[in-house]
Amino acid sequence: MLEILEDREEARLEELNRYSDEVDVNNTEQTSTCPIFDGIYRDGGAEAVLRLTNFAPSEINTLWFSVRGHVHRYWNVGRGRRSTFAAKDVFFMLLVVMKCGGTWDMVARIFKVKTPTFIKTITGFIEVVTRKLYEEWVTSQLDVTTMRALVTSGHTFNNFPCTLYATDVTFQQSNRPSGSMAEAMPFYSAKHKFEIGSDLSEAESDTTQMPR
């Protein structure tokens, strides 16, 4: 056993010696397929990504891989001016918006993007990715996340063992349209309230629709 461990350590040292321990920042920026996400990860590590999104980098990759094919097929295609941002970068910025909330100006400053460009990019991306995320992480769990499954797997709530899921709520910013008061009133109602239900296995069980 000791010989195996020594061989592994020698192999690691040999591999480290083959590569420079100095990061070529310029080369990394040029070759990165998602410079915004990679830049934040490079500068602040996994902690910076987690602080901005409440997701670890590996969890973001899992989410991204579930919608990547759909995004590449339906986002930033067709006629008209195309976005200069990488698809994964926009997905990352969307997660930051959902976590941080606040005004568009505040979140746009994090990425050093002009606010009108940021709003157009994020809202357009939401229209493409929302339904796919719902199918992958909500609809697909309907047959899996049952009360029987939670009981047999030991994932029930301690204080409420008969509860299937708990619901949290957040109020996201909405754009008030210009026009008459009748057109603006729906944006002062609860229709922009967003509710998410989750069980102890962290699978989404139910979400509200967001018509606005």
Automatic annotation (TrEMBL):
It comes from the Eukaryota. This is DDE Tnp4 domain-containing protein. The lineage of its organism: Eukaryota, Sar, Stramenopiles, Oomycota, Peronosporomycetes.
